[in-house]
Write a structure and sequence with these properties.
The protein is about 35% helix and about 20% strand. It contains nine helices and 17 strands. It has helices at about 70-80, 115-125, 220-230, 240-245, 260-280, 285-325, 335-350, 360-370, 395-405, and strands at about 1-5, 20-25, 35-40, 50-55, 60-65, 90-95, 105-110, 130-135, 150-155, 160-165, 170-175, 215, 235, 375-380, 385, 410-415, 415-420.
Length: about 425
């Protein structure tokens, strides 16, 4: 997985192949393998590319969606959000939370459409087409505690910011320099970005939300955040935060920026494989599959070893039988062939015909081609050539399969039939 974001969460538009981005590579979606900063044309490659949008690039709105068809949903969102947004609704891109359906109260993410499309086109031209778009900071899910609040201090556009998220929304507040009189009450304020205010996102938490906020910070601004807010911040570098963002369950590639059905299927398959390979919840299943594979491998090896032992025992029996029957054979290489040759030698010595004798071959030809005997015979040890067939080579077509069925090796060269006993 390759996770990208405009350099230092910049809100500047893309500027072609020289556009700078921060990037993170991960094999399992849980740990950072590599990270860095590069121009779009010099980015590393990966099968799945995720674009993380800066916190201030996205505004968040809680709306009650009426039950309308998918084709009318965009127009309905324009009407619902028209009074909440400073920008023209036609210039914005919308995305619903995962699982959000008409007839429900859902979160809607909004961002500048032209700005987003410029970054998508830049990455496409650089050979890094985006398969998923995620927000770097999103409202906490429905499973979050009502009073849960998370902060992340980070650099954005050369300035330190405090991003805050809860089940009530997202806010981004600039961090002042020491001595500027910053108030701790900012921890209890949940508003949308200054450039896109949302009147509905007011403080929905009571005093209990101030008790134990989860405070995290990029190392570059951790000292400033702790000094300004009098809180201890856990260090979470940008690379780790981008990795967290890629797992937040959001995908802003919706409506006219949505992927094809095939691309979505491939994306879900890659995510499922990555989760199965790395997620702790799947660890028992992974161990079970590994144990099953190990048992199968051990079983196959034991079966192969058993068959090999049986084969070796049979070969040993053949060797013993050969050497006991013919004590003169001291070196056994091919027991069946050697035994056949020894039997033929005994037959020749006793005047009994063997399969390699000419008389046996002629008898076989007489049985398979009566009245069509060859006119020429050329016999060598265990091999006979029979030619000058009456009527030309036509009889060979019927003689060959008949002889092969009787256990002979038969081949033809022109008008000659070559006959040999099977070894």
């Amino acid at each position: 997985m390759l996770i990208l974001t405009p350099s230092h969460f910049s809100l500047s538009p893309a500027s072609g192949p020289t556009s700078a981005l921060d990037w993170v590579l991960s094999d399992d979606g849980l740990e950072v393998r590599e990270h860095g900063h590069a121009q779009a044309s010099l980015l590393p490659s990966d099968a799945e590319v995720v674009l993380a949008l800066p916190p201030r690039a996205v505004s968040w709105h809680r709306v009650d969606l009426p039950k309308v068809g998918a084709g009318k949903l965009r127009a309905v969102l324009d009407g619902l959000l028209e009074d909440r947004l400073l920008a023209d609704t036609g210039q914005l891109h919308y995305a619903l939370e995962a699982g959000g359906r008409p007839g429900q109260t859902v979160w809607v993410a909004a961002c500048d459409k032209a700005w987003l499309q410029a970054w998508l086109q830049t990455l496409e031209a650089a050979g890094r087409p985006v398969s998923r778009i995620v927000p770097a900071l999103a409202p906490l899910g429905a499973d979050a505690h009502p009073g849960e609040l998370q902060h992340w201090a980070h650099q954005a556009g050369g300035q330190p910011w405090l991003g805050s998220a809860s089940a009530a929304g997202v806010s981004c507040t600039p961090l002042p320099e020491p001595g500027s009189g910053f108030s701790d009450s900012a921890f209890g304020t949940l508003t949308l970005e200054p450039h896109r205010p949302d009147p509905s996102a007011s403080d929905l938490h009571g005093a209990e939300t101030l008790l134990e906020p989860l405070c995290m910070a990029d190392p570059a601004v951790a000292g400033l955040a702790e000094h300004a807010l009098h809180q201890r911040f856990d260090l979470v570098p940008l690379a780790d935060w981008l990795l967290r963002s890629a797992r937040n369950g959001w995908n802003l590639a919706q409506f006219d920026l949505s992927l094809s059905a095939r691309a979505r299927h491939g994306q879900r398959l890659r995510q499922a494989l990555r989760e199965w390979r790395s997620a702790p919840a799947w660890r028992p299943m992974r161990w079970g599959v590994a144990a099953l594979v190990a048992v199968q491998v051990v079983g196959l090896n034991l079966s192969a070893w058993h068959e090999r032992q049986r084969l070796d025992a049979k070969q040993q029996t053949l060797r013993r039988t050969l050497q006991q029957t013919f004590p003169g054979v001291t070196l056994v290489i091919d027991a069946p062939a050697q035994m056949r040759r020894e039997v033929e030698q005994l037959q020749q010595g006793s005047g009994v015909l063997s399969q390699g004798d000419l008389e046996t071959m002629l008898a076989a030809l007489g049985d398979t081609a009566p009245g069509q005997g060859p006119g020429s015979i050329d016999y060598a040890t265990r091999s006979g050539r029979f030619g000058a067939w009456p009527g030309g080579p036509a009889p060979l077509a019927s003689v060959q399969p008949a002889l092969q069925g009787r256990g002979w090796r038969v081949s033809a060269e022109g008008e000659q039939l070559i006959l040999q006993p099977q070894e």
